[in-house]
């Protein structure tokens, strides 16, 4: 036996009467005549094979069946609106300019962006990787969204996740024993460079800047050959490197926060991407490769 379908228009009329306890006020809300609303309720009662209201000259009351239907009606209409909204969002067009750190742009975001573009194929994303400290000053002008790294306790932007920087060196060479310590770091403006130098100076460990590069892969390759030590996020420690700890004679490094920054008056496309990245990063566990 095929069960009857519940027409959303009939459910809206039903909820209007249930909320107002009046056919007259329900008709006014729906911009219909009272007789039209009464007809819709009768059609709904025929479909569910039950009386939904008790009527008399002074009031309208829900029957037990009517009370049971109220919650279902609200859920059905809510799901209907959600489905229609999602399908309409699927057609949203726009361009989003995204700035992000090199490691997140290489290891984290590509899969998340691919999933986003299956939902919103008409949105074009332009992603740039690099030092996000320089990108934040151009937020709104050159970038719609920037995912940036900050020291713990930063007040601006939306916290997405926390990361722990670690010293890293070749798994087969003991570069951390060289004096002065050769370090491979990123250009001025990088927090890891700042923290590494401050930490070494604080413990009076002699060091020299052996390699500088904007490219994460280059820095890691230099370190993997035993030419220097570097600093990476613990969650991105490659297998070619080993994490170092204070037991290896290197100072501890402060924790970092990954925060999302949006430009003023973000477009609908930018807001959708921000929401997608927020949810995806919250669900994706950070990889953990502790010092070995």
Structure, explained:
By secondary structure, the protein is of the alpha/beta class. The protein has 10 helices and 12 strands. It has helices spanning 8-20, 23-30, 34-48, 64-89, 102-107, 109-119, 132-135, 191-202, 216-224, 268-283, and strands spanning 53-55, 60-62, 94-100, 123-129, 145-151, 158-163, 165-170, 181-185, 207-212, 230-233, 241-244, 256-262. The strands form 4 sheets. A 5-stranded mixed β-sheet has the order 4-3-5-12-6. α1 (8-20) crosses α2 (23-30), α1 packs across α4 (64-89) and α6 (109-119) packs across α10. The chain is elongated.
Count the strands?
12
What is the H-and-E element order? HHHEEHEHHEHEEEEHEHEEEH
Largest sheet: 5 strands, mixed
State the share of residues found in helices, binned by percent.
Answer: 40-55%
The end-to-end distance, rounded to whole angstroms, is 65 Å
**Spans of at least 5 consecutive residues with low confidence:** 288-292
Mean pLDDT: 90
Q: State the helix count.
A: 10
Q: Over all CA atoms, what is the radius of gyration? A: 30 Å
What strand order characterises the main sheet?
4-3-5-12-6
In terms of DSSP E residues, the strand content is: 15-25%
* Shape category: elongated
Structural class, by secondary structure, is: alpha/beta
């Amino acid at each position: 036996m095929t069960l009857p379908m519940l027409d959303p228009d009939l459910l809206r009329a039903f909820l209007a009467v249930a909320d107002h306890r009046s056919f007259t006020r329900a008709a006014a809300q729906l911009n219909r005549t009272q007789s039209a609303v009464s007809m819709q309720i009768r059609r709904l009662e025929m479909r569910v094979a039950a009386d939904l209201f008790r009527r008399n000259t002074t009031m309208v009351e829900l029957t037990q069946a009517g009370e049971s239907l109220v919650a279902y009606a609200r859920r059905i209409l809510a799901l209907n609106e959600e489905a229609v909204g999602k399908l309409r969002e699927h057609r949203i067009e726009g361009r989003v300019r995204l700035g992000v750190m090199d490691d997140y742009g290489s290891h984290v975001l590509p899969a998340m962006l691919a999933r986003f573009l299956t939902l919103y194929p008409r949105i074009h994303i332009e992603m740039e990787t690099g030092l996000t400290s320089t990108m934040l000053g151009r937020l709104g002008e050159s970038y719609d969204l920037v995912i940036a790294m900050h020291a713990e306790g930063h007040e601006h932007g939306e916290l997405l996740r926390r990361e722990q920087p670690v010293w890293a060196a070749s798994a087969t060479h003991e570069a951390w024993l060289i004096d002065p310590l050769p370090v491979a770091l990123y250009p001025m403006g990088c927090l890891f460079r700042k923290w590494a130098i401050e930490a070494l100076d604080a413990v009076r460990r002699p060091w020299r800047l052996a390699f500088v590069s904007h490219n994460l892969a280059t820095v890691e390759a230099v370190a993997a050959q035993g030419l220097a030590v570097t600093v990476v996020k613990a969650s991105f420690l490659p297998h070619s490197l080993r994490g170092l700890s204070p037991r290896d004679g290197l100072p501890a490094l402060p924790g970092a926060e990954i925060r999302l920054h949006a430009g003023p008056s973000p477009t609908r496309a930018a807001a959708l991407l921000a929401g997608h990245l927020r949810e995806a990063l919250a669900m994706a566990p950070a990889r953990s490769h502790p010092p070995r």
